[in-house]
Structure formats: structure tokens, C-alpha cells
Amino acid sequence: MYISNIRVQNFRLLKDTTLDLEDELNNELSLLIGKNNSGKTSFIVLFEKFLRSKKFYYDDFPLSLRENILKISQETDEYSLAIRLSLTIKYGEEDNLQNLSDFIVDLDPNCNTVRISFEATINKSKLLKDLDTVTGRKNEFIKKNLSEYIQVSYYIFNEYSDFESNHRSNLIKKDASDVNNLINLKIIQANRNVTSSDAKPQDRKILSHLTTQFYNSKVKVSHDELEGINSSIINADEQLSDNYKTFFKPFLENAKSFLGLTELNVVSDLQSKEVMGSHSKITYGNNGYELPEHQNGLGYMNILYLLLNIEIEKADFEKTERDINLLFIEEPEAHTHPQLQYVFIDQITNTLKGIKGLQTFISTHSAHIVQKCNFKDIRYFRSAKDEANTEIRNFYKELQAKYADEKNAEIDKVEKKNFKFLNQYLTIESSELFFAEKIIFIEGTSEKMLLPYFISQFDTDGLGDSGDIALTSQNISILEVGANAKAFRHFLDFLEIKTLIITDLDTTEERESEAGRKIYKACSAKTGTHTSNATLRHYYKSPEFNTESFPDWMKKLKAHTHDEPSALIKVAYQDVESGYQGRSFEEAFVSANMEIIARNLNDIDGLKNKNKFDECKSDPDKFVEIMLDSKGKSGFASSILYLALSNDHLKWNPPSYIKEGLKWIAK
């Protein structure tokens, strides 16, 4: 038995949002990711409100509905304003249906689904009646007091149209107790009380308090596990009682005589809960070098806090024996080193294994956690294009379909390879893309070393338009992807993140090999008739080399007259600058900085034949061909960067195509 679908309506940013959990083999753990303010916390809070607090407020409604609430009248359809959480639950023959049977209304043996909805509606008649007594400032009255007029109900339904005013007779109302017998909710929130060594003394034992809580949960479940502890306490009771009798004997004799009592005793009455709560603590270290818990690092404290909480919640899940157990863990990465984040997400599945009917949801902003997770578990929160609503996208399922959705068999084969590459690359390298506001893809080592310098210079020189935020202040992920930027096309469309792809023109010309076959050899941009750059060919939809349309496509490529792939993707490559067009970053850079190179020639690495500089200085193509060591590009770039950072009076000029690209991504 498991929840296969969750739909949220009219709650904050979640105006109409669906989380798909259809995969029966993959519904135990869902990783909720997305940029800040994308609705992840709201999603968790809604469960807490419906299953615990039952309190809703004016600010819980989407902005688009608040005006309708303020203008509420007898004609208002209050059900169209309702906050709703709807669950689709699937069950099988192996499930015990004792608790679920109260929700099963379809007697068809082939039906294995029930639908339950929690609904928070405004009591319109009561609110309007009270508004009649309010003189002026009715909007303020509604904003402050709306929570008092919101009622929570539970229903069985078949279709979402059942919630419309004219179909509500199809709904079957249920009691809160029916829902509570079926579902157990636990939330480990992000605002954890983990404190450091400078905290107040009473706040320093949060882990010790949790161990007590864990102990108490075990007391309720199993006395057998605690036999050793209880036995020790009984023995301690007997010894203390004997000592008390000796110690208090004079006092007790006097008291008996004074009060006329026949017998008076002081006996030990140790309670295991009290002993754990007041006289136990967590330490770390050994061999006489134990330190108190608050002197441990916050990262370790946080992980210990999480593990103890999880153990406590597991004990409750096991004790209550509900059919559906929901565990939400918010931002486990708080205070925690990346290595511990890896360990946490690696181990969490094993830690939670064995709990019947458990579905776990972990919200995170950590690329380290995403990198270590199964990508099939990802649910991506993203704002919809045309309205103020958050969509929850099934990353793996939707992307796999996109990369396979090609009619041409040869293209389909390539796209499947692209998806395989993307899945592996993201696992290894670039999970931070999920949390970026903007992305820059670069092709090689030289760009990787020098782009941060160019970005800094761009801001320093004020090359952006008025009102643009400095690039160094923006959340931009820069990733070196080599010639594989083409593999990210559907991924970028999926994320809808503004992306700059910096690549090379890579011009070639057709030749004939000794064996008589066509080959394409690297050549200058001026004479180039083709390109070897797969990224350019992919994003600008290149025809095949042997087609009639290719020469015109290539001409437009060199002239930069192709339309950009989309409004959110720009491809930047070498253009004409001072009458010259390079085929690679190195040629474009040399062309833009030849005079500066001349003044610093002896300090630049990665070069050969420096004595031939005079014959190469007027021709960047010749410079790269004769003077740049093909194995020394990284040395060339690093020495260029070193000179810039160590000499206040030296400033390199970024090639114009990089400047234009940065200007575009800055907006």
C-alpha cells in the first residue's frame, strides 16, 4: 500500500501542483529539490496543517485568490477558494485492508485505488454574518481573523470534478479519526535545535534530551530490550534504601516520636525515565578523554540529531502500526560537511529499511546530496511559465522521454547516448545545476582558468547595462563540459534556466586522404568551409555536409546570423573582431591581446619558438600554429592569469564574443 499521487490546490505557491509517485519500485524515497522559494517547504507544511494543527491563515492562500477572499459575498463560490490536499492510494492483495476499508467504495475486484482529500474551506455564511457587524476596515478584519472561519473536512472522491459546487454530492465525508488510523505523519524540520559550545548551559544537551526521548519511546514498545537497565535500577534502589535507613535513622526516630507515627521510612524510588532525563549525557572520545556533546562540531551534532530523531520516529511507526507512514526530513545538510552529506544520503535508505508502508521525502538544497542519490528519486520544484504556480517534475521519467522522442532512428540512437551521458555526468560532476539561477558552459581548460578573471573584469569595467546586477553577485554555475554541451539541450529546456554556452567555431576544410576518402582538416576561419563543432551543429540544426543547404548554413554560422536556440539559451563563439575571426579561444585571445603579449613574452608559458614572434605577431593563426605548444595550453592560460593577478598595471582584453556572452547572461 502506498501513495501514488499527491495533488495540492490553492496553497501558497502551490496553486495546482501534482507530485507523481507512480513507480511501484521507486516510491520509498523522494528527493524534493529546487531553487529557493519554489514551494518545497510549503509542500511539507501542508501535510502538517492537515494532519496535525488544522490551522490555516489568510497568508496561506495564493496571491491570485486573496482579492476574491477580500471581496467575498453571497455569490462567491467558496469551494473554488478551498485549500486541498488529495491523495491517491494504491493497494494490493497482500495488504491488510482493515483501516483502508473505510475508504473503499468501489467494489470492483479489479480496482486497487482509493482517493482521499483533505479540504480547508471558508465558512462563508458565518464570515459574512460577522462582517455585517464590522464597521469599516473589513479587509483588515478578514486578514487577521480568517483562520477562525476555516473548517477542515475529509472526503473520499472519484474525480476532481466532484469538488465543484454542483457535483459535491458525490463526495463521501469521513472523520479525522479514520484518517489518523490510516496515516502516520512525522516531520524532522529544518530549524533543528543543534547548538554550539557558546550556547547557554540549558541549551547544550539537545542530544542527551533526544536519547531520553528515544529511551522513553522504547519503554512504551518493549520492556524486554530494557531488562538490563531496569535490573540495574532495582539493584540501585535496594542499596540506596539500606543507606537511606542508616543515614536518616536519627531524623526518622525523632519524627515518629514527634508525630506519633508507628513507622516512617525514606526509600529509593528511581524511575528509569527520570534517570535518563536528569542523570545521563552524550559524550565523545574515550580513554578518559571524553568531551561533552556541545564541544563536538555542528556537522556531527546535526547528523547525530537526525539519526536520533529518525530512530525515535521509527519506534513510533512500529508502535502505531499504521498502513501509511510518511516521514519528511527538511534540509539534512545543515551545518554539515559535504563528506557527511554523502554518508547521510548513502545510508538513509538502509536506516529506514523494514518499516512497513514508509514513504520518505527529503527536501534539500545540497548538490552533494543530489549527486549521491538515485536520479530516479528526484522530484524537481519549478515555477510554471505562465502563472504563479509551482510544478513538481519527475526529472528522470520526463527527461528520458524527451531524449527518446525522436522520429529519426539515427538521431534517436544519438539522443539515447546523450541521455546516458547526462545521467552519468550529473551523478559525477554537476548536480549544482539544479540549484543555479544561471549557467555558463565552457569547453576547455583555458576558458575554465580565465573565465572567472574575465567576469571580474567585466564587473570592474562596468561593461553590463545600467541596472544589471554584477555577475560576481549572481548565482551562476560554471561548468566545463568539453564538446558535450549538445547533450544538455533537453536538460536545459527542462530546468528553464538561462544558459550561456561558450564554445569554438572549429572551422575545417574538405580534403582528400591518401586512401581517396573525404577528410576535414582544421583550418583558419577565413578559409573554413565546414565545422567540426558538434555543439554548434546541434543547437543551430546543421544539415548534413553533403546537402545543398549546408554551404548557406555555414555562411550564416560564420556571420553569426543564425537565430539563437531559444530565449534562454545563447551560444557564444568566435566572431569578427578588428577584421579578424579566430577558430578557437586561443586565436581570439591572441588577436585581442597581441601588444600585451609582446611586452610580456618572456613570462608567458606554453609557448615555443619565441624567437619567431616578429613574423607571427601580425597573424594570430600563425602565432597559434607556430608558437603555441599544443600540449601547453593549460600552461599558457595559467601564466596569463598569473600575470594579471600579480601585476596591477596589466589587464588582458577578453575576446569580443566572450564579452557579448557575459553581457547577455548578466541581464
UniProtKB/TrEMBL annotation:
Pfam families assigned to the protein according to its UniProt record, in alphabetical order: AAA_15, OLD-like_TOPRIM
Q: Where is the Endonuclease GajA/Old nuclease/RecF-like AAA domain?
A: 1-370
Name the keywords, alphabetized: Endonuclease, Hydrolase, Nuclease
Source domain of life is: Bacteria
Q: Does the keyword ATP-binding apply?
A: no
GO molecular function terms here? endonuclease activity
Where does the OLD protein-like TOPRIM domain lie? 434-506
The name this protein carries in UniProt is: ATP-dependent endonuclease
